[in-house]
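Thread: Newbie trying to understand structure tokens

Hi all, I'm a second-year student working on a class project, and my supervisor (Dr. K.) asked me to get a predicted structure for one chain before our next meeting. I've only ever worked with sequences, so writing a 3D structure as a token string is new to me. If someone could post the tokens and maybe explain what I'm looking at, I'd be very grateful. Here's the chain:
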Amino acid sequence: MIILIDSGILGILSNPNESEVNTKCEEWLYNKIIKGCTVVTSQICKYEVKRSLILCQKKNSLQAEGLEKLAELEKLIDFIAITEEDIDIACQLWADSIIAGIQVAPQQDINFDLIICSQWQRLKTESPGREITIATHNIRHLKRFAQAELWENL
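---
Reply by user tm_fold:
Sure, no problem. This is what the structure looks like when written as tokens:
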């Protein structure tokens, strides 16, 4: 199984604050890796999480531990680059959703979810026969374009 974690899950895993959710998510990640799952995320997710961590740090509301945790995660999981094919697929998904009347984000915004869904589609093509699921805490938009589940259910 390949698990593609979205920025919400990457954010939880990078959060330096102690909480039940953060601890459960960390345990979940290690459990999946031990069981032989391949866990990946997108460079776009890293961008979303890292910019938030840097902003919090600049506002003095977060120490460097969040950035350090993110760096440690890069040793554990693969951060897949966005390809030209991913962009092409994301553009098609975006146009199809607009035509179908499914607004996934304001039209002028970059929709990170669609880029993640396009990467899911690429992984499906590159890994035939393997189950590939996006792990998230909000399946609403992702479920329309990819196989996505709440992380706790995987």
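A couple of things are worth pointing out once you decode it. The mean pLDDT is 92. The helical segments are 7-14, 20-34, 43-58, 65-76, 84-99, 112-126, 142-145. Feel free to ask follow-ups in this thread.
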